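Good day; I would like, with your permission, to put a structural problem before you. What I wish to show you is a protein chain and, alongside it, a tokenised description of its three-dimensional fold. Please examine both parts with care and let me know of anything in them that strikes you as inconsistent. Thank you for your consideration; the sequence and its tokens are set out here:

***
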Amino acid sequence: MTTKRLLSLDILRGITVAGMILVNNGYGESFEMLQHSEWNGTTPCDLVFPFFLFIMGVSTYLSLSKYDFKLSGPVLRKIVKRTVLLFLIGLGINWFDHAIGGDFLCFSHLRIWAVLQRIALCYGIVSILVLTVNHRWIVHIIVALLAIYSAILLWGNGYAQDSSNILVKVDLTLFGADHLYQKSPVDPEGLLGTISSVAHVLIGFYAGMRMKKAKTVTDKTLSFCILGAVLVMGGFLLSYGLPLNKRIWSPSYVMVTCGLAALLQGVLMYVIDIRGKKRWCTFFHVFGVNPLFLYVASELLAIILGHIGVSNWVFQTIHSAVPYPQAASLAYAVYFVLLCYLLGYILFKRKIYIKL
């Protein structure tokens, strides 16, 4: 029973990682649905990262349950080590992007925050929290975090797309403009957004807890579907006062994306675990068993291929056969996902699973 559950979770994780690589590697002019929303609202592209955080929450429950949720020296060292390594790898990717162009001493303008750094903080905070707090308070903590963050956004002009936004002010004060995201005033992985992101991962943890307590696969599937439906409806209702917004990781965005992830997990459990339809799973299983490695490899590979001109050559070759720029961009992104898949497939066939 456990293997089946983990397979469906691996598939959802694999779909998410493949999706992250796809939307991150469109070349030139992408379709609107493969671009992040400029401000309020959500596109399919905006679902991949929050899906990953939700899955991380579920996986954190399954992982820490092996230690009976008891905090000990070895467990704490493991959590701290993984948190620090994730953060440093994220910084390393940002550094490598500068260094490959010759700017080795880029520390005065190195971006501090990015996807892996947010993952690191959320993992570390949530892991220590669930090892030190009675799990009956998890829902209360989620509600409290989202309420606090909502108050911060409402009080601090959190929906402003300029420097009057409290999220911008905090990041500028603590880190300085040179260490932040340069393409918009609001850093989408800034510090204050970690509050709602921690709540996001805790929702995944709570979903894992509900799944573990359910007695049959059917009950586990229903637990995801019911939780997902409640979150999606609640999130859309909340969006009337606090619109969906990925850039600031708004509370409504947390609820809707967690709900959609839970619903998809429920569907996958039904298809894979109840109906036994697994023949289509291999492609996403490859991404699901080595998610961190393949994501990091995709980031480094994109930087290297872009620097040496291979990316542009491949895109121009595709574009010469596909005249529409958006379609050519999508074709390039698919090519890049397949490139990463080949790398992952070699590891998959040799049963090599790279973990921190």
Notes: Residues 60 and 127 are 7 Å apart (CA to CA).
